[in-house]
Write a structure and sequence with these properties.
The complex is a heteropentamer of chains A (390), B (236), C (286), D (336) and E (251).
Chain A (H helix, E strand, L loop, with lengths): L3 H12 L10 E7 L7 H19 L8 E7 L4 H13 L5 E3 L4 H13 L4 E3 L15 E3 L4 H15 L5 E6 L2 H16 L6 E5 L7 H9 L4 E5 L3 H14 L4 E4 L6 H6 L9 E6 L3 E2 L7 H10 L12 H21 L4 H9 L4 E2 L4 E2 L14 E5 L8 E2 L5
Parallel strand pairs in A: 1-2, 1-3, 3-4, 4-5, 6-7, 6-8, 8-9, 9-10, 11-15
Antiparallel strand pairs in A: 10-14, 12-13
Chain B lengths: L1 E10 L2 E11 L4 E5 L6 H8 L7 E6 L2 E2 L5 H7 L1 E4 L11 H9 L11 H7 L1 H5 L10 H13 L5 E5 L7 H16 L3 E6 L2 H7 L2 E6 L2 E7 H4 L3 H8 L5
Parallel strand pairs in B: 3-8, 3-9, 6-7, 7-8
Antiparallel strand pairs in B: 1-2, 1-4, 4-5, 9-10
Helix pairs in contact in B: 3-6, 6-7
Chain E lengths: L3 E10 L2 E11 L4 E5 L6 H8 L7 E6 L2 E2 L5 H6 L2 E3 L12 H7 L9 H5 L3 H21 L14 H14 L4 E5 L7 H16 L3 E5 L3 H7 L2 E6 L2 E6 L1 H5 L2 H8 L2
Chain lengths: 390, 236, 286, 336, 251
Amino acid sequence: MDFRRPLAALLLSLATVSTAWAESPIRIGWLSSLTGALSSAAVAENQGVQFAVEEINQAGGIGGRKIELVTYDTQGDPTKAVNFAQRLAFVDKVHFVIGPVNSGESLATVPIVAKAGIPNIIIGTIDELVDPKRFPRAFRAINTNRQWITSANDYALKTLKKSKIAIIGDTSGYGTSSAKTAAELLEKAGVKPVFSTLVDPNKTDLTDELAKAKAAGADVVMPWSAATGLLARLLNARGDMGWKVSIVGHPALMAPAIRKLLNKPEYWTDAYAAGYVSMTAGADGKLPAATKSLVDRMRPKLGGAEIDFMFWWVALGYDTVHIVEHAVKKAGGTDPAAIQKALETTSDLKGVYADYTWTPQDRNGFPDVGVVMNLADSFKDGTYRAPKAP
Amino acid sequence: MLEVRDLVVGYGKAAVVHGVSFDVRAGEFVVLLGRNGAGKSTILHALSGLIPKRGGRVTFEGADITAATARKVVQAGVIQVLEGHRVFHSLSVEDNLLVGTYVRSPRGDRSKLDRIYAMFPEMAEKRHDAASRLSGGQQQILAVAQGVIGEPKLLILDEPSGGLAPIVIDRILDVAAQLCREGMSILLVEQIVEKALRHADHCYLVDTGRIVGDGPADTMLGSAALHDAYLGRSSG
Amino acid sequence: MLGVLITGLAIGALYAATALAYNVMYSTSKVLSVTTGHLAMLGGVFGAWFVTELGWHPVPALFASLAVGAFAGWLTDVIAIRRVLARSDEHLWLLSTLALATIVQQGVALWWGTEPKPFPRLLPQDFTAGLADQKYWLPIGTTIVMAAALELFYRRTLYGKLFVAMSEDAFAARARGVETDRLRAISYGIAGALGALAGFAAGQLTFAFFAVGLTLTLNGFIALAVGGLGSNVGALVGGAALGLLNAFSANLIGGEYQNTVSVGLLMIVLLLKPEGLFGSRRVRPV
Amino acid sequence: MSGTSLRPMAGSVAVLVALATLPWWAGDQYQIHLAALIAAWWILVAGLNLVVGFGGQLSIGHVGLLAIGAYAFAILAGRHDWSPWIALAASGGLGGVCGLLLGLPSLRLPGFYFAMATMAFALIVAELVLALGDLTGGGVGLSVPGFPEPFESPAGHYLLMLGIATIITWCAWNVARFPWGRALVAIRDNPVAAESVGVPVFRMKLAVFVASGVTAGLAGALFASLQSYITPDTFVFELGLFFFVCIIIGGRGSIAGPLAGTAILTALPELVAPLAKLGTLFYGLLLLAVVLLVPEGIGRLFQVILERLRPRETASPVLEPDAARLAAAIRRQERP
Amino acid sequence: MTALVADGVTKRFGGLTALAAVSLDVQPGEVHGLIGPNGSGKTTLLNMLCGYYPVDEGAVRIGEEDLSRASVQRRAAVGIARTFQKPRLLPTQTVLENAMLGGWRDTRTGFLAAALSMPRVRAEQRELRDRAQAVLEGLGLGYALKRRAQLLDHAESRFLEIGRALVLRPRFVLLDEPAGGLTGAEIERLGIVIRTLRDCGIGVLLVEHHTEFVFGICDRVTTLNLGRMIRHGTPHEVRHDPEVIRVYLGS
């Protein structure tokens, strides 16, 4: 990161104290964990954010006002994220905050941004991040964790028609809470998991856990973990055991990084992960038009070759900036109250990643129909295919 | 052969040895006498390169070894047997001896063992026992043997009698005298005066870090200087 | 249950190997280095780098990894031990090795990344071998061979005896013409190579992952303290005990209490037998 | 001493006044937030400093005690609606109890063993926070209430923390300057000599360790309310290392050194972005440099330089005991 | 009067008997010398008197009070102070602070009282400071009160250690080779100090190699060899004892 940027921002904010004129830029704070653990999604999202900002600025900005992006690398550390959130709110005096990327960081920063009255585009999946009463200006652009889990549960129960479910979570914060939610939602649907366990994300071997699941009579295994290493070990253990059982779960199951960790490529078959309609090629192998268009426009930026990471993070990042653009245009400025009003009456805003709808009662903008199941091993050029109907 | 000139040694701020000079000639048996705390061991450690010197000059066979490392001193042929029967307890007798050969051959030299076993038959009997199982006297003999196997030209014995029975002391001093007759120079530091003087050619008296007297060994016993150095000046 | 036993022994072997590396360094310096686990981490990461990214054959990759480990061990001595031992303040070596361990771990994180990366298959074997898979037997076998080789080294070679001599009485060793500084550097190199070998052998189990180091520093230490500081048999027994305890506790009460259970074992042993199962009691110096 | 301590006293008062008026001259709330964060870390480090800097016990796991305090406060004040003041006191108390439970077995262990035991403790706390999800919110974490008016605003919150930090600093300074501090230094530098004059080594180590548990608990509670939301990701092992590094770099056996160390090491990565990127690597490099070059810490380095600048004492006069005065001194102190 | 008594104490290290049934008593107001060649068990005996080694057989008493099982701290509390062969000081602390450490057993204040700087803590601190200062001035160290201990020379360190022992208000002081490394003039001054202690009614046990010094200053002398007591008596008796001469000079 360029160390002059915060300095410049500081000088700028000093120069512009209490002299906000119409042509002043729209400042967006972007809290991103570009380094440290769990940085891969953030790096991709950053590509989308930067690209959208460039496009808009080249086209003359929003109503003549350029966008100025203030990016901070939180390194996935909640303490740092809080510091940067304070800084965005009080030093940089931004009009919008996007992020942070990880739920753990977001939980810590959202109340701070809310207290400062700044509109916040949320890109974490944990339920607690949005609350129209406590954080009236926090609007979520990504799906919720619940939407992923519901979709995966539906797929296991209704499409695969299996009901003996084994849930495996990891002992990280995300893993424990997701495994719990998954079990709750299944029980609500009238199915009690036959086996449920939590595993250390760095545990070297999952044969034992799978053997127990098998002994319990499971016919589908649902891992809820974002740790690719753990998911790869799960797939390897299944393959090495020679157990024919479907695996249905978290999107990380189809992360391209897993391919390298697998003992054999075919271990990736019969695994399904929650993905997105917008990022799923149809039967004809074609992507939705908006997605296709963004891929084509961005490909030169991304090196020109095939995309080797999940493109939806780029699309999400790209959309967040356009949500800001939409809000400013609709509100006719950057007054926070007007922005809130504009966003909570937004319905069916077309994006690349999804179409968004917020209401005064609901800050979750992502539609349920936006999530679909993908074939885990169908990764190609940043996107996926849907499984064939059985 | 060994010339020590104005040797100064100290710990921290204080000097413990204040400008000591003495000689050991080839084939000579020299004894340094003086009560404990007089600075004898410090002199020996310094000239062996085990602790730093603060001043003075040490030459051996004409070569300056003042700044030499402990290894260089040993390689030059000056080998010291430390006081307090310091052998390596968990190693066997034979392994202790092999460690003694390291300075001459980095892989150990078994061919030298026979000569040592002939010289110290009690070690041959116990060759495979751990050194910790030897008695104090046997450990001291092993320590001497470990020094001898390194083929010194000058063997330094630092108080080999410490805490041992008279018979062992006799044994060690006899060995030292024999080695001396075979051409090795011996520098002995002792508290047990009479026995030491019986074997030695020349004697130096050390007190509070200085040489306070010297002379041929046979003239020293019974001298007032010697008695004073050990039991103080008779004042009453 | 057999599966739990073997997976427990496999990870226990890695702990035991780390404990052996601790012992080798301790013998010549009386220092327990925080970097010990990181030596094994380097073996895993560099092994994966040589084979997967540089495309080398596993055999030269193994030797190159050993060289990296030996170099890292030697560097530990030069940077963190030599100057600090000369000052004879026992606090300092803990600080200096802790600092070096942090640097190594964060350096690898920046260069290699914080995600686990795959470790290549070393022997041609199908993945369906189940419990006969090489990922279990390589670390177990390597550790046993390592311990046996160390014993032979100590018993049969003069250098091994010099290590023992130095660990007992470094001053007397110097009086015998032993260059204790050089010997210590050699022992750190050997420990580094041993650690790297263990990390390499267990690579398929752990993946090439930067955070393995700190875990091994702790768990290797627990194995060492349980088995008894300075004892190689103790290291093996302690490592196996800890690995099995981990595996069975994960099996019976779940994975949430791994560290709690390990440390519980450590505390019980230290309370009942402070010198460890095979250690010798230290006499208090005045 | 009482005459010469006026100047440092005046200096301390000046610094305190400057800090207390920070909300009125600080550029923005972010600086106040940063200052509050430094205060929270210092409250912990002030107690830990007695253990590490004075007592010489190398604890690298105080982040575990910090987490216990933070969660205790979040649970009691947030979920059970206790008064934040009582919850704050309870957090400190719980930190002390946990310090006792950790110290009882581990303070008898030799150096490396003790360091590993504290590290393991930090890992166990992290593990339990996740495992006991019903209590701690698991990975999702807990939201933490603030303090009532007038401490609700950022400035008020900062002033509250400054006040507590000042009291803790005063207490630590007292411990350091009275016989307790000397006995602790004796335990660090020469335990055998300490025993020989009757210092109860283990009991004293335990007492300061418990005290450091209390400050860690207080710091945890204050930090949690400053963050307003806590998750397990906050209390990583590297944070424990950070506290430790603050003390070593600041200098063992001093109060001002570690205080400066805490302030600089907290603020520096915020102000110089490239350092933030290097993060823990930077702390590692700094620690290594200090240990190898100035093992007594940077604070000590300044002290030595000051001593150099002062006119050198002339050669010692002859050491000449005075029998009459000595006898008088001995007789004077005889017991009745 | 109550004496410090070692009554038939025996100490074994592994198979080695370091001390075999040695008895000795130090009376208040007496300087008692303990001499013997290296390895004869002098320091071992001293360590047993002040509690660093437990006794295997026999007993250590002051008057009727049995201290055989008492901790080092307990023995300091009943008035046994000692110095070490190699001075053990706190290098970064001042001379005055080092001496004040000796007064630890008189501090009655707990951690909390100290942390809150209660008035009685400050009173104690003042009293202790005055006491330590008086002792140091008596020893001739008054010029170095604020010097850090690591800057002292050898003789100053030795005297400071004695000062620390005196601030403890001891009934008995055990000196472990106090003359080691001192020059002749310094040894004479040490003699002045030791005589002053005796005159003030303190019992002094003097472990020393410097026999001239020992015979010159002690009231009684005990000689050890190989862990056994070989002679006990006045300096005159001991220095002319044939057994002692044999041990030192050979038969």
